[in-house]
Amino acid sequence: MTEPENPVALVIAAHPDDGDFGAAGLTAQLARRGWEVHFLVCTNGAKGTSDRAMTRERLIALRRDEQREACRRMGAKHVHFLDHEDGELVYDRVFLEELVRAIRTIRPHTVMTHDPQDIVIRDSFINHPDHRATGTAALDAVYPTARDHLNFPEHLEQGIEPHKTREVLLWSGNNPNYDIDITADVELKIEALLAHRTQFGDREEFIQFAKERWRSEDGRYLERFKRVVLQF
């Protein structure tokens, strides 16, 4: 990846831990190269526990703290939360405005987010509806909405200028075209994910699952993306 004039990346994830699954290795690599990496988590993480004693308020607070710790381990210094209800995320104008505002404020060269195209991924899991809503809204925010000053003109009144993102990387799709070798960072990626203690209680079982998922046929560990380089 060529170093841009504005080495800023924005990871837009539906839930706490999604961005870690999708791009923790690349995030760590970018951070070491001096990039400023932001995480934007769109939902509150109020779902996803088998603990019957866990309250939603406590789970939300725990998952926020877990995401902050995971980002610290990855080297991402900025974490933002939108707090939409987990499992009920709707792509509407309110959500689109929030993403456009984030893009125009953070001004990333690269946006990383969910690939929203496929519902069934590699014939092994279903793409969560929150993931699909996030990926679709993020792509629409990147192009064309954040670029055109006539979209959400109130931003101009607030001193927030339009912005052109130059690169998009989509994770967890069926047709990746861009591989990042994370072999040297696979342990760091695992440690970032293990910060999410409410989600991954069985450390050894999770590590085995994760390594099998990311290992390529030649023994390297990869993060795979659909890469879109915007030409204008």
What does the model show?
This protein is an alpha/beta fold and 232 residues long. The protein has a single domain (8-229), classed as LmbE-like (Rossmann fold). Helices cover 38% and strands 20% of the residues. The chain contains 7 helices and 9 strands; from the N terminus they run βαβαβαβββααββααβ. The strands form 2 sheets. It has a 7-stranded mixed beta sheet, with helices on both faces. A two-stranded antiparallel ribbon has the order 5-6. The radius of gyration is 17 Å and the shape is globular. The two termini are 18 Å apart. The mean pLDDT is 95.
Top CATH class: Alpha Beta
Reading the helices and strands in chain order gives: EHEHEHEEEHHEEHHE
Specify the CATH architecture: 3-Layer(aba) Sandwich
**CATH topology heading:** Rossmann fold
Terminal CA distance reads: 18 Å
Shape: globular
**Total domain units:** 1
Low-confidence stretches: none
Q: In the CATH hierarchy, what is the superfamily?
A: LmbE-like
What is the strand content?
15-25%
Q: Based on the structure, what is the oligomeric state of the protein chains?
A: single chain
Amount of helix = 25-40%
Our Rg estimate from Cα atoms comes to 17 Å
Search tags:
232 residues; alpha/beta; Rossmann fold; two-stranded antiparallel sheet; 7 helices; 9 strands
Break the fold down into its secondary structure elements and pairings.
Layout: E1 8-13, H1 18-32, E2 36-43, H2 56-74, E3 78-84, H3 93-106, E4 110-114, E5 120-121, E6 125-126, H4 129-142, H5 154-157, E7 167-171, E8 178-181, H6 186-194, H7 203-214, E9 222-229
Parallel strand pairs: 1-2, 1-4, 2-3, 4-7
Antiparallel strand pairs: 5-6, 7-9, 8-9
Helix pairs in contact: 1-2, 1-6, 2-6, 3-4
